[in-house]
Amino acid sequence: MPPKFPLGQLVATPGALAALKEAEVSFWPYIRRHQEGDWGNVTREDAAENELSLREGFRLLSAYSLPDGCKIWIITEADRSATTILLPEEY
C-alpha cells in the first residue's frame, strides 16, 4: 500500500525509544501503519478526524500498543515537516 502522506523529519522521544527497546520491537512497522492510514487504537471520532486531516492538511495522530502493553503515539505535523514517536504522557 503506498504511503498516504510524507513523514517529514522522523524523531522520537527518549521515553518512546526506551519503550520500543524494552518491548524489543522496531518502530518501522508502526510508522508504516501510520503512513498507510491504519491509525491503531484511536476512537472512531479520532479516526474520522484523521481522515479529514488527510484531505485538509491537519495534524495526524495514531496510537498503538506495543507487545508488552506499553502505548506509543505517532504524530505527524500539519505541514508534514516532522513525525514524532512519543509516549502519551510525554505529550
Short description:
With about 90 residues, the chain is α+β, with helices and mostly antiparallel strands. It has helices at about 15-25, 30-35, 45-55; strands at about 10, 60-65, 70-75, 80-85. The chain is globular.
Characterize the structure shown.
The protein has 91 residues and is of the alpha+beta class. Helices cover 34% and strands 23% of the residues. Strands 1-4-3-2 form a 4-stranded mixed beta sheet. The longest helix has 13 residues, at 44-56. The N and C termini lie far apart (29 Å).
Strand/helix succession: EHHHEEE
> Please, what is the average pLDDT?
97
Q: Which structural class is indicated by helix and strand composition?
A: alpha+beta
Shape: globular
Distance between the termini: 29 Å
What is the helix content? 25-40%
**Poorly predicted tracts of residues:** none
Estimated radius of gyration: 12 Å
Strand content: 15-25%
Main β-sheet description: 4 strands, mixed
Helix tally? Answer: 3
Which oligomerization state do the chains in this entry correspond to? single chain
